[in-house]
Design a protein that fits this description.
about 150 residues; Aminopeptidase; Acyl_CoA_acyltransferase; GNAT family N-acetyltransferase; acyltransferase; GNAT_dom; transferase
């Protein structure tokens, strides 16, 4: 398996991955609208100097994806000015459980640290136990739990 930066030629499969993420997240988020949803501007991640969108290939087939985006801290009291936000983490179902998410995470963290970024964050649904465990294996720890009340 190899990792590489995504290109515009990869957009068709990446858009399929995006819908796979939406499908996987629907059970954890009752606020999502029905139908097709687009979370990301994938083309922007490909072009932006402040982002990297990577894919993992197995025998010339794209089997996984993830991005890192450098963001500015919105809080003046944080001890960091910028951080890397990771997202679009998707592994095809038949490739899950093989350490591919860790490969992606390591690659994105490495990209971030090469740009002087020491703070790396991501969001995961608290009830998505398999994803939480995967990120904990990669060294992440819970920081904040967002709660909601539907009135």
């Amino acid at each position: 398996m190899i990792t590489r930066e995504a290109t515009e030629k990869d957009l068709e499969i990446l858009l399929e991955f995006e819908q796979g993420i939406v499908f996987a997240e629907r059970p954890f988020n009752s606020t999502l609208i029905d139908g097709e949803i687009h979370y990301y501007d994938l083309n922007e991640f490909i072009k932006s100097p402040d982002a990297t969108l990577i894919v993992v290939e197995d025998d010339d087939e794209i089997v996984a994806s993830g991005y890192a985006l450098i963001k500015t801290s919105e809080k003046d009291y944080n001890n960091f000015k910028s951080y890397a936000y990771l997202g679009f983490m998707y592994v095809k179902p038949e490739y899950r459980g093989k350490g591919i998410n860790k490969i992606i995470t390591d690659e994105l963290v490495s990209w971030s640290t090469s740009r002087g970024i020491t703070e790396v964050r991501l969001d995961v649904y608290a009830e998505n136990e398999s994803a939480v465990k995967a990120y904990e294996k990669a060294g992440f720890e819970p920081l904040l739990l967002t709660m909601r009340l539907k009135s």
